[in-house]
Amino acid sequence: MQDYQLRQRDYLLEISRAMTSRLDLESLLELTLKSAVEILRGQVGLIVLRGRDDVLRVRASYGLPAGLARFFQPLWADLPGMRDRSGLRDTLSRWRIPDLQMRLGMVAAAAGLALSQVVALPLVIEEKLIGAIYIFRTRGGAFSAADQALLAAFADQAAIAVRNAELYQQVSDERRALEAIIDNSAEGVMILDAAGQIQVFNRALAHMTGWDAQEALGRPAAEVLVLRDRQDQPIPLPAPPPHRASAAEARAYVEGDVVRRGGPPLTVGVTATPLYDEEGILARAILNVVDITRFRQAEELKSTFVSVVSHELKTPVALIKGYAETLRREDADWDRDTMRESLDVIGEEADHLTHLIDSLLEASRIQAGGLKLEPTDVHLPRLAEKVVEGFRTQTDIHEFELDFPPDIPPVWGDPDRLREVLSNLVSNAVKYSPDGGTVWVGGRVDGSGVTVYVADQGVGIPPEEQGRIFDRFHRVETGLHRRTEGTGLGLYLVKAIVEAHGGRVWVESAPGRGSIFMFTLPRR
Ligand code: ADP
User: pLDDT category, 20, cuts 50, 70, 90?
Assistant: First the structure.
């Protein structure tokens, strides 16, 4: 073998070794260029590559003082663009940059270098012209066809290096994009290895479980995402089959309540999707965790609604029907008093039904965002007196006291709605103090408005219920609360009306001693 062929083989070997040792692209191009210059007995070399913007730029140079590379631009000024396939085919078939030698003269003069010969070859990947390699001589004869053939091997190496770098970049870009997608997904996502240990744990899941990613990584999934059912029994996480199965068999889904470190309870649905290796053995599992709390709540609300409505409607309807049928009996001749009492009951129960239906309509109107106020100046003591008056006749065991300062200013509100608020609160105060006692209705002027209160000496409300009693249909389900009739709509309406007035409502209560409901109303 000829000497230079041996040397070429050595150079190429060195370059491929460097490639497998994962040198960065810049060093690989420099090594390739240096080898090519040496073997072609040149003095100067350049590699230009296209950037993402399709512009060719010098990416490696050899034997060239810094800053001079820019003078060489005319040598590649009219190479066809990356996407220009037809231009490329022409360029490759007659790969001779037109007037190359003449352009070299201009470049050499501009750069002040004594360059006399040039050979150039394209760098091509998958029929795309990604750049070119140039070798120059300052002395000696022109490059031969054999030189050009030698250079081709180096051009191929440089193209492969670029291709590898592109692939590597693509993979890491994709990985970064995937990581960003997973991390920013609104769903909880974790990726488990074959042993069920956490490899990836996203932000949503950190929020759902209260574990942060750093703590969770490397732990068994079952330790971090703990699920329980309504009876507080543990629910195992879904586990895909260890060997490849049909898509339907492989996907597994469970629902349960997350045992959470801090934060309100959460109901989730967990789907496990397996990834199998080529041999069909489980390599990883992806767990998607969706917060279905609201969905569950909506379902529960619906069934509560149905049971409350049917229960609350049934009693008055049964009474009305019972009394009406009794009165209608052909064989009976009722005296006037019995008639009147029965008709009173029918009337009261019909009122009760009307009130219930109004509350339901009102609640659904509020839900639809349609609570309209007709505000005017409202004198609270007078309004409270009217409300209390209605209750005085209904109970013998309760005392009512009004407690407003004489100079209390009028508030700006809808009198009918505010009457409803007071009447719901006073009705509750009576309902939930079955042993009687005093019910106070009063108000105080404070900074920006008026605070109104309704206090009783009744059964009180357990602290853990105090935040929820204002929710739609929420009722306390223990002891006397359970035995007292109601829909759980009263306080929901109170809250909606007070908030529509720009105020807020809250409760303070000591179980067994009584409750105080308070709300604020802004002054006119
Ligand atoms: P209900 O129709 O059940 O009375 P509300 O929305 O008015 O519905 O009240 C919700 C729950 O709050 C009630 O079921 C009751 O358990 C509790 N509650 C309301 N007011 C009082 C009160 N003054 N004393 C004790 N518990 C009360």
Answer: confident
pLDDT category at 101 given cuts 50, 70, 90 is: confident
The residue whose CA has the least distance to atom 8 of ligand 1 is: 488
- Let me know if 51 is exposed, middle or buried by CB neighbors in 10 A (0-12, 13-18, 19+): exposed
Report the predicted TM-score, pTM, of the whole model to 2 decimal places: 0.56
Token pair in block for residue 149: 């053939």
Is residue 263 over pLDDT 60?
yes
Atom of ligand 1 nearest to the CA of 489: 6
Residue nearest to atom 4 of ligand 1 (CA): 486
Q: Check residue 491 and report its DSSP letter.
A: H
Closest ligand 1 atom to the C-alpha of 475? 14
Q: Give, for ligand 1, the residue of 355, 428, 518 to mutate: max count of ligand atoms closer than 8 Å to Cβ.
A: 428
Which atom of ligand 1 approaches the CA of 433 most closely?
Answer: 24
Task: Label residue 46 exposed, middle or buried (CB < 10 Å: 0-12, 13-18, 19+).
Answer: buried
Residue 217: per-residue pLDDT = 96
Pick the closest to residue 470 from 441, 493, 501, 454 (CA basis): 493
